[in-house]
């Protein structure tokens, strides 16, 4: 996403001090008037229910701007962002990001496309949580998380940083259930393990 902003602004932003966040630390909470450039690492975006359960609605990767959706909303926000790995972020104020968007009309179409894609992804995730069986939800998530540029034959690599507890939180299940299903996937060949790294069989 960052590549769509004018180069001169991006270069200036990347020269700023970076904040290092460890896994589990919150990057963004509701009410902040900031957009965070994710320079390094992976983060999860989620809603927090009153009972404390997290509903994960997406992942943020390097080059993405966390909080860009909040920039255009007048509603009370409920989205949190938490580091899944050690991350580095750069904070920008709403005003300076809005100024760049105003001065760069061609950004409007890209942002419209970006917002539409995020909405479609969120609806897809919520549909799986609402109607899919736990096993189906886990397979759906693993396919989403798989590193498509890292493949060996008919298998694609899964990220090393995710724990069973992380996966359980993303599919509204329990760690014990995820552990059981991951072992089942290993037994039937849906997953293979090579040097402590898991590989997922490519779905047809």
TrEMBL record:
Looking at the record, the residues that make up the Cyclic nucleotide-binding domain are 35-118
SUPFAM superfamilies membership: cAMP-binding domain-like (SSF51206), Winged helix' DNA-binding domain (SSF46785)
Q: Which domain of life is it from?
A: Bacteria
Q: Which Gene3D superfamilies match?
A: Jelly Rolls, Winged helix-like DNA-binding domain superfamily/Winged helix DNA-binding domain
Q: Which GO terms describe its molecular function?
A: DNA binding; DNA-binding transcription factor activity
Q: Which PROSITE patterns match?
A: CNMP_BINDING_3 (PS50042)
Keyword list, A-Z: Activator, DNA-binding, Transcription, Transcription regulation
Q: Which GO terms describe its cellular component?
A: cytosol
Q: What is this protein called?
A: Crp/Fnr family transcriptional regulator
